Task: structure prediction
Amino acid sequence: NDLLGAYVDTVRMIRMVNDEKYKTGIDYSAICASEETLFNVHDELVANHKQVFDEKVAEKYLDAMVPFQKFLKEDCGKITIELIATLAELNHEGTFMNHCIATYFDIIANKQYVGFRVTNNDKEERLTLGCIRHNGELYFNQLKGWGNHPASKESCLETIEFCKKHHIIITEEHVHDLMP
Result:
């Protein structure tokens, strides 16, 4: 569910940051003391995330996106889905959408994840779609609006159709984002 996802993202971001405050004695149970505490820590880490501009990472990121060039931009009913094709686009998506997709740069560059911009053209709704890459397959992972808000039902239904069309597997484990 969203709490587990937020916890996993928070722990991942804590491990990435080079901040003394997170180096020693992290009490992970305190982070989970309440839903509010968890989301406050998560949001603070997102807000303080330093964008990555390393050229080697950018090249590795581009290489990881080669198999997905067919997704550069596709209209699917009422939504448009675009591949987040460069590291600069990923950094922009994280900042623009006020969530942690930009912190996924390492797993994207290591060919374990793919991100997409989603726009609902009828509702002026912007979302980010994340998919896990595993053994040559894509698995739906999450669909998040600005600040991790849930997507509208209409956008969820259109995203499901996109996933079906492109054989993106939706597992029971991750389906909660598609059920607003």
Remarks:
- The chain has a mean pLDDT of 84.
- Strands lie at 74-76, 79-83, 113-120, 125-134, 137-144.
